[in-house]
Design goal:
Number of strands: 25
Helix content: 25-40%
Strand content: 15-25%
Radius of gyration: 25 Å
Shape: globular
Structural class: alpha+beta
Distance between the termini: 59 Å
Length: 621
Amino acid sequence: MNSCWVQNCTSPISGTTPIIFTQLIQTLVAAQCSLGRIDDYPPDRTSEIVENLNESFDFIIVGGGSAGSVLAGRLSEQPDWKVLLIEAGSYPSAKSDVPALFFDLWNTSEDYAYQEEPQRDFCLGMKNRRCKWSGGKVLGGGSTINGMIYIYGNKRDFDEWKAEGNEGWGYEDVLPYFKKTHNYPREIIEKYGDKFLGSDGPLSLRLCNDTIPAFQDVIIKALAEVGIPKLDVINRDRYIGFGRVHINAENGRRLSAAKAFLSPVRNRQNLFVMTSTRADKILIKDNRAIGVRVTLKNGRTIEIKASKEVILSAGTMGSPKLLMLSGIGPKEHLEEFEIECMANLPVGKYLKDHIVFPGIFLEFVNQSHVDKTPLDSQDDAYTYLAHEKGALAGIGGGDFNGFISVEDPTSLYPDIQFLNFYIPQGDNSSIFNMLNAFSVSPEVRDRIVNSTKANQNFLMFPTLLKPRSIGEVKLRSKLSADPVRIFQHHLTDKRDTARLLKSVDFVKSLLDTEAFQNFGVKIRNIIIPGCDKFEFDSVGYWECFIRHIGFSAYHSIGTVRMGTPDNPKTVVDSKLKVLGIDQLRVIDASIMPDITSGNTNAPTMMIAEKGADLIKAFWLE
């Protein structure tokens, strides 16, 4: 770039035009340089902490993801509390600010990229027949690398939590904590009211700043013909329908939990952040958590003390791992690694996750379509850097979501969520990158990509919202550097398979609508290796397809389950305190008693908002 400024132009332009060109280049360069600025976040104070190891913190939060960022921001509101946030990853990259590039963040240094344990009847078309599990190893955690979709779930989800004895966790109890986070546009509040939506919080929620594919209107018309309504705003009191969801973004850029909750308070002197630091063990004395042992980036191990509480916000994989390494977990499992059991609790036992089936490709002909060229991609980059809009400011149509009930079509509550993507004809790289990000094997991936070259593609991916199959997280060894073993056990309950097959039937029912027939919409015939023996569109074909390329939605919950003390499934009580160990809480998605009906990032931030108030109530009142 610098060389451009010193070259002699053979045909110089006189007048004001060179000034305009120079200003344009400067604007674009400045916009690019403003992405991924470390100065936007609290500074890393590791060296200061190491120099003063005799000093303790009031609170130590392990994990700087969606929950940990919220907690650190809220607890540091108390000026007399010293709050330490420990994150295993580093600061977000420039790429993470660009919404459309979220698939490119997976399998990088910002992603834990766990490998699930092989299953006999699932993930059969994945690399080495193993699904991957993506999790944010970066400040902001999953909110820094995910698709930014912000969805509560629904009233029944939380009322079921309360019905299990979790007082204070019913829908009416948690709704204020969702709203506390929100910064919805004023025009949305004025139009739809403030009963379900808030406007004074730090998390901006916006529609994508990109062009809406015209085919969405066709989908809406087809859905209306089969009785499925359009939803103007997803997070309200209607749960069945299709519509555009809001994403956590501002001015065309991702707004992670770290940027929303930590950036505005980055100069607080009572807020300490350590990055590239791995928590190895909770220090426990007389059944009380007194600190953590960590390994620094340079390999040095130190111990840091907490006078009030240690809080685990390391996620559904990280929190159970740290508990078990510290002697809190199933006694028989800990004994396998000669770990002394401090509290015999079912840590890691009740893993649940949504399943996505990325195999329903609708094809149709668009006579006016023109294939995208490299110049168009340059235009996209210009539009994004100059105007914060366009294709790079969106998530490829992924903000168009749907919710239906296939088990009981009369139900007010969904059991299937549809993630929808529009892929123009000739844009094979988008499908390639998507399947590659989910670790689909080269043989299966290339077969799908080659099958979708002709005509337009509208992808309707059903997601199983209320799975009955239950998995488990276990230690791999007693070494904290080793990843956990993830046993998802997807589709081991036959009812889960049946519901996914019904979701395929639902999409097939749309083919008979006038809206689809006018466009000549069909389901693509894609025969992948391993399913060749089945006739296209047979039950056997679809089940085989699901078992080959279905994958985790990375919405895992339940491994440090919340419940009543007399429930054998319980690890933390309704105050999020670990049973049998004082001054230790877990505050993240792992505490959910059951999975919510939608993307889990919003409920995770809600849990942290409520958790912060629980802590303040305990120590201040």
